[in-house]
Amino acid sequence: xxxxxxxxxxxxxxxxxxxxxxxxxxxxxxxxxxxxxxxxxxxxxxxxxxxxxxxxxxxxxxxxxxxxxxxxxxxxxxxxxxxxxxxxxxxxxxxxxxxxxxxxxxxxxxxxxxxxxxxxxxxxxxxxxxxxxxxxxxxxxxxxxxxxxxxxxxxxxxxxxxxxxxxxxxxxxxxxxxxxxxxxxxxxxxxxxxxxxxxxxxxxxxxxxxxxxxxxxxxxxxxxxxxxxxxxxxxxxxxxxxxxxxxxxxxxxxxxxxxxxxxxxxxxxxxxxxxxxxxxxxxxxxxxxxxxxxxxxxxxxxxxxxxxxxxxxxxxxxxxxxxxxxxxxxxxxxxxxxxxxxxxxxxxxxxxxxxxxxxxxxxxxxxxxxxxxxxxxxxxxxxxxxxxxxxxxxxxxxxxxxxxxxxxxxxxxxxxxxxxxxxxxxxxxxxxxxxxxxxxxxxxxxxxxxxxxxxxxxxxxxxxxxxxxxxxxxxxxxxxxxxxxxxxxxxxxxxxxxxxxxxxxxxxxxxxxxxxxxxxxxxxxxxxxxxxxxxxxxxxxxxxxxxxxxxxxxxxxxxxxxxxxxxxxxxxxxxxxxxxxxxxxxxxxxxxxxxxxxxxxx
Length: 602
Known about the structure:
- By secondary structure, the protein is mainly alpha-helical.
- It is 59% helix and 4% strand.
- It folds into three domains: 7-229, Clc chloride channel (Orthogonal Bundle); 247-452, Orthogonal Bundle (Clc chloride channel); 462-601, CBS-domain.
- Residues 541-596 form the CBS domain.
């Protein structure tokens, strides 16, 4: 017993340096894990694509080490239609009876674990996630390889933190370090993997505390992976730089197109998720049904099968893509591939099969970039347009928009091509896509910023919060956003802009507190306002949110705000509402308390 205790003490996490050392170790494991997964997936694809479907999806130059599809036989419509359904059925059995966390994209579940589950991932998840993704992509499903590799690394990090008895903060950091390792290895993107890991958890922020561990892990995983599979970037690209500034308006057009199709992708993906969650079928059959529809799409457009990275490499090499089924090519064929890739990816991942969304996002964006470049060649031959820069810029910008990750999108593409020459147009197009896409995200579990994430409760010392009483800092309370329960919802919507509030305290007779009405959760669309005018009162849609009194603590108030997802809290005494406190009021009170303690200690 004593020796075990001593061993655990020696290896326990005792500060940032310990985190850095373990990040290196996690990166090493993530690199080996990514290599093993890629080898197994490629072996599966060589059999299913080459021998059964008769379709060669191509391969990025950095993955040539794994490529084992010889000369594909004639196209087999029967296998193309039904093989994705067979793969979906096998995945459905795994996710329904063995590991439910293996379904879907993987990245969203990692984000959820970071914010709401203290970075905990069950040890069996990486294995089943890898197996389910091999079955999904190997059978022709439309998805990416990054989901399982990220979860393999994240699982290593979370399990190691659990073994060491680390706290929630260290576990989250090691989980992100593992995620970065998986991404850095599979995409051959040492910096891009790290930036993606720290940026993907928020919509408008980054997890800066984990940046150094993520870089250490990602670089280590990259070196481990390439030491076995060979060095070099994922895509082989000829040298290029933006010397003709007449191309910039075309890049701006590409940014607008990435936003439009990105918005469409997010809506379609979430719609498919919701539809399949309500579909009256046993859960294990849902991925098979989604796979069958994907197979029908692939019968017309086999180009939607797999990750799509092979098509990107072929276009970078200067090959003119031609439809496998119809024998036509040109810009509108590329646009069609992008649109059908949206549907095939949504049906594959949204129905419950396993595959990442990052890879297909790159593929869709690449096709959009190639569409703009090809159209520009036709319309403006005097500009001497080269297609592949538009393709690569579209890749990063489309992902940046749908994932709310502008820095990650730019750096990831630069890492994957081994050059930063395209950074200027990437910056232009990514910023346009992200600014326009500020209300959408492919990841439903993303939190807006650190201050709204449960993972950062430690930013405010909870002991201090629990010791500060409301009455210690507040003698009067705000009353602007307080309304009667008899007020109609349409009238509240009209008054809200003037009050500059989205959540309102609801009062009954004698200022009795009734609850909170949130216009973020309840709103009548403009086209229905006239028909529903004065029919719905605020009292009919009130949310039952507990109140506090002046003798309660700031910790209690903050807990209610977070638990019920509201931005203000009623202060009630003797059955009468005295006013309310907002998030910012609690933060200001906490900061003042800390400053007072610091002054006294000087």
